[in-house]
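User: I'm putting together notes for a lab meeting next week and I want to include a structural view of one of the chains we've been expressing. I don't have a solved structure, so I'd like a prediction I can at least talk through. The sequence is below, exactly as it appears in our construct file.
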Amino acid sequence: MQAETGESRYTEYCSRCHGETLRGTDFAPALIGDRFLSRWGGQPLGAFFSWIKATMPPGNSGALHSQAYTEIIAFILKSNGMKPGPAALPDDITSLDTMTLPGERSWFVDISRPGWKLSEGITLPPWPPRANPLDNLRPVTDDLLKHPSDGSWLSWRRTQDAIGFSPLTQITKRNVKSLRVAWSLALPAGPNQSTPLVHDGVVFVHSFNDHIQALDAATGDELWHYVRKLPTGAASTVHRNIALYDNKVYFTASDASVVALDFKTGKVIWEQAIADFRLSLTHGGPLVARGVVMQGIIGNRQPGGGSIVGLDAETGNILWRFHTIARPGDPNDSSWNGIDPEKRSGGSVWTAGSYDADLNLAFFGPAPTYDTAPLRDLVKGRGLSNDALYTNTTVALDPMTGRLIWYYQHLPNDQWDFDWAFERQIVHLPIDGYIRKVVITAGKVAIYDALDPATGQYAFSIDLGLQNVVTAIDPKTGIKTIDPNLIPGYGRRIMVCPHMAGVKTWYPASYNPATRVLYVPLVESCMDMIPQDKGEPSYLTTGDEITLRPRPDSDGKYGRVQAIDLTTRKTLWVARQRAPQMTGVLATAGGLVFAGALDRVFTAYDADTGTELWKTKLNAVPNSTPISYLANGKQYVAMVVGSIAGNSYVFPTLVPEISVPMAANSTLWVFELPDS
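Assistant: Thanks for the context. Below is the predicted structure for the 676-residue chain, given as structure tokens.
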């Protein structure tokens, strides 16, 4: 029965290339007979399963359920004269690896490579062997993460302080107009928000359907390719970053497991489930420090909410778990307006944390809850407050134990989904006559708060001027005064700025430590919150329908990159455009700022003036963050694009004339200067 079902699937998905009789065509090799068995004979079925899932169907690899792939394999085996056993083939690699295809692989066939069988007795003409950068990979140590080489990109934002700045200077204001494509590579198709990492000439990149690839950073040639098999019922999700440490690549899979791969081979070293994938997700990837992998979990509307998990980097053993929703026994349990602990939700961790090696503290930002109605009005006698800790809060954790060292809540009782859940950047600034270290972060309202990273003491705020909810900020405490007329759920229509997708969102800002200038990607928009009939479903449980609208004074330009001098706390320049910003920002020591937008345009700005110096049109919407690195002594700028995801779904309504490609696709673009 399994083989019969596999035959129909083969006819639908495979026969056009491999032929109706499985004997191959000009486009694909045979899957029957000596040619097939000389390639796969004696090999584990798990290897064959992994290969077809990683490569088939062309352009949409991994798109079928695991069961469908095993059904096709059963049909191929039957077509090769193998009798079906009493039980169906399993669809997990561990079990499939206990079975082998009959026959013996010919010595001159490389199963890792596509192509026709080489004629027997043929010796290929000699050719110089190509250098493999994997051979020279050094272990990634704590010291290397703290002091990376200028040409590497070892963490999501290059350095663990999350400033997202490249010290490279080959590409400058003067020559950026000559920037051209060095290479590009089609990645596994699907939405892609990942930021590549670069170490010792190797690019590591994560793609939809849980693919991890290692690439030659100078040429884009694939060095290894891992694809994860998901359990039945687990849907692929979008992930934003991976991590490097010691000899491993760490990523979080769509089944809520953290996985460690050998960074030279792509082989699994360990894997550890950290949540029930049916209830919780992961988008922001891992942060690794001092032998601990720290991973945030998205709680959404699930009882108990989100958490942050610490795992042993060597073994994957879970060391600790910090719950981002205060529970019984926590001193802030009473901040939930008397809501029963099992009914509390939210506290999702959407963004990877940052790390201060000198203080040995990791900083994360849990998001608010969508179950806003029970929190809106303080119920006397039930709880001491309705602040809902630790939502919209910077939490400072000891990486070794997960112990909470301090916390600061930026926006209590968030009734608008104005997440203060994005990057925490650690910078040095002159304050009151002294150079002080501060951790800065902004929520969707684009108000930046600065805190002392050792204690959480409030330092200052900067309001970028694109919101109407916060009417005042206490200069000593940072406590924000909210316009009571803009609290939803009281039966009135209100206009709130920004839209819940945010002026500032997860797309990270970039900070130049030499000039102390922060470059922030923003989208100008607002929302109407409209009362609904009782019982109608709504995004927030206060019950209002949410619609998108321009700002009242809008001129039709929504995309915005803003440069702020953090010494003076004044805006230096604003670059505005029609297309909403869709990427993080990269600032470089060459005096440039790179960012991408919904119209697929990737732009380089003058870091001092905001003048547009170079731009190019990409094949899909960029939803990631650009990086820059060195390979063989040459500077490159890289950008991942992919099918629309996140805010790419929200903002096209504002710009109906902009064409947004809907086809599943993803590409890594890499740019260089021409050789002189």
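A couple of points you could mention at the meeting. Confidence is low (pLDDT under 50) at residues 106-111. The chain has two domains: 2-96, 135-672.

User: Perfect, that's what I needed.
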